[in-house]
Description:
Shape: globular
Largest sheet: 6 strands, parallel
Low-confidence stretches: none
Order of helices and strands: EHEEHEHEHE
Strand content: 15-25%
Number of strands: 6
Mean pLDDT: 96
Strand order of the largest sheet: 3-2-1-4-5-6
CATH topology: Rossmann fold
Number of domains: 1
CATH class: Alpha Beta
Amino acid sequence: MGMSKDTALMVIDVQKAMFEEAEPLHAADQLLDRINVLLAKARESQINVIYVQHNEAEGTPLQTNTPGWEIHSAVTPPAAQDLIIQKREPDSFYETNLQQELAAKGIKKLVLSGLQTDYCINATCRRAVELGYDVTVVKDAHSTFGQGPLTAEQIIEQHNDAFGIFAKVKDTSAIEFS
């Protein structure tokens, strides 16, 4: 099933510092590869691409305008027409211009990828559904870190199951934009 021009691919918080933590990000290389596959499909179909950048306070890994804050160089750099949304909270809509930009572009469907499964992907997915968007989470193109007794794989699997209750959940290979 294809998607039309009212669709946007969101690449959330794929920033350098996320790949430099003491604990490695789960399947980091595969994540970057899959996001590049999604970006190539989106560009080929001339679908809107939206990058989201998390901004944190001075002295933190994602401090605004520091090397760690930059979008990871392994992910296709933003093209001139791409939108870059700056946020300070896990929800990409909260106190940002994302909703206004989506409305201006006539976007009704969102395809989510990036970081972190249990924070910004989770919060953005739920908010997008509440706002009436048709949401697809790319189940093998988001990641996180292990937390307490849970491995990253367990957190990702549990969230993919939960996302499936109110959003579509598909593998990278099943995403078609045209």
